[in-house]
Each structure stands twice: as C-alpha cells, then as structure tokens.
Amino acid sequence: MPETKRIHRFGVVESTNDEIRRLGLAGAPDGTIAVAAEQRAGRGRRGRVWHSPCGGLWMSVLVRPGAKDIARLPALSIAAGVAAADALEKVFVELGLPPDSIGLSWPNDVLVDMKKIAGILCEATSVENSIPFVAIGIGINVNNSPEQLPAEIQEHSTSVKSLSGNNWPIEKMLEIITIMIDNRIAEFKSGSLDNIIAEWRKRAVLFGRNVILQSPDGNKRKVVPVDIDNRGRLIVHNDNGSTESVEFEETTLIR
Ligand code: BTN
Question: In degrees to the nearest 10, what's the CA dihedral of 238, 206, 254, 80?
Fold first, then answer.
C-alpha cells in the first residue's frame, strides 16, 4: 500500500484507536495507520487516561489477524512492545543515548531507566463472533515533556526530548516505528513467536523484583516475575512457593 494512502493524519482526535475502529469497520486494509497531533481522550490500559498533548507520537495500526492468530492475540501486544523498544533503540543510537537503558515491563511498557517512555493499548473489534481486526495503539513520549503530565505520573515518566535536550522529528519517529512494527507483525503472523519472546526477554526489567499483580477482578497480590513463556505469558513465583503463568493481569513494580 502506498504510504500516503496507508497513513491517515489527524489534528485533534478523541483517540487514534477509535479512528482505526472507524476505518476498520469501513473496510480499511491491514496495515492502515492513524496518527494524531493530539488526543482529547487518549486511553491507557485498564481504563486509565493516557495524556496525549502535542509533541508526542500518538498512533494506531490496524491488524487483520488470520484465523490461526486469534488464539495468540495476547502475544501481539508483546510484539508491539518489542517494536516500540526497537524503534527507540534506533533513535537512541542516533542521539548517542545508551540503548541498553531501554527496558520492557510486562506486557509492553517501554521504560528508560525504569521511567515510562511508551505504552501500548491493543483493542480487538468483534463482529458476529469473529475478530476482523485489532487496533494496536502506540503512544511514545517524544517532544512532550513529563512536566505536561499530572504530578503523580511525572516522576515515573520520561520523553526523548527530556533525555536528549532536543526535539526529535515526529515524522522520523513515525517512519522508524512503522518499519519496526511491520517487521514484528510479520514475524507474529509467520507463526513462530520465538524471536519476539527472545527479544522481549533480553529487555525484561521485572525479573527477580517484587511486583504487585492485579487480576482483572481487582484482586492484588505480591509476586516475583522470573521469566516469560513461549506464548508471552509472565511466569511468576507466588509467596507460597508456587509458580504460575499469568496472561491478563497488570503489573506494578514495588519501588
Ligand atoms: C498504557 O500504557 O496504558 C497504554 C497507552 C497507549 C496509548 C496509545 S496513544 C495512541 C493510542 N490511542 C489511545 O487512546 N491509546 C493508544
């Protein structure tokens, strides 16, 4: 698809994931991208607000999964996190920043020295018991600064600009992340998750640390993550000595 047709550009939107949903329902092809200068109602995981002022990269990619991909969809969000880390690593190398300061929390938060620089929200659209497409929403703090964020998240957030002291061209960021996400989606669709999991594992920041795990029903418990399995689930040690793999929980590092 020519890049000009593929990328839908917006000024201010509620959420680029909503734009992808609209485009997807209208028949837009696999790989369609929505990108906005600003989001008025940016969403994070678990119903959280994602603050999206001008200066960040707020984008979503439409993925039409094959029949065999449906059961593996949670791993798509792992793949997207790896792609965002790949993209930031490339930018860091060009800026002379240390690429090994970039890490991944589970499932897909991208951190720099434990401060969040990018987040991913994958939302599947279902129509008559099928999932025709998924929106992979990617938010990267590029030229926005943590000072634009509410005080409680400021100290745990960072951006390319606050790390390098300079603006980084948003268009170039979009170009790089598009290449990286295309590669990781192709890898995901090819059937084997091995390389994606290995790349995620290399950047894992939670292993061996005390973490609060919150289940979808709101229950919380302390665990120690020790690995990721071949489906992208987090393997954790519980306080009672048992080990299990979790798929739908949320992690918060105990600092
Ligand atoms: C998270 O870390 O909780 C996920 C954040 C995802 C933010 C992106 S920005 C583009 C897309 N549109 C949204 O409303 N959310 C995602």
Answer: -110
Residue ranges of the chain with per-residue pLDDT less than 50:
none
| Nearest residue by C-alpha to atom 2 in ligand 1 | 119
Ligand 1 atom, smallest distance to 52 CA: 9
CATH code of the domain made up of 211-254? 2.30.30.100
Question: 48 C-alpha vs ligand 1 centroid, how far in Å?
Answer: 9
Write down the H helix ranges in 27-169.
73-95, 151-154, 160-164
Residue among 52, 160, 80, 48 nearest 112 (CA): 160
pTM: 0.96
Cis peptide before 107 (omega within 30 of 0): yes
- CATH code, residues 4-203: 3.30.930.10
What is the pLDDT, as a whole number, of residue 149?
87
Pocket of ligand 1 (CB under 6 A): 15-17, 39, 42-45, 48, 50, 52, 58-60, 109, 119-121, 137-139
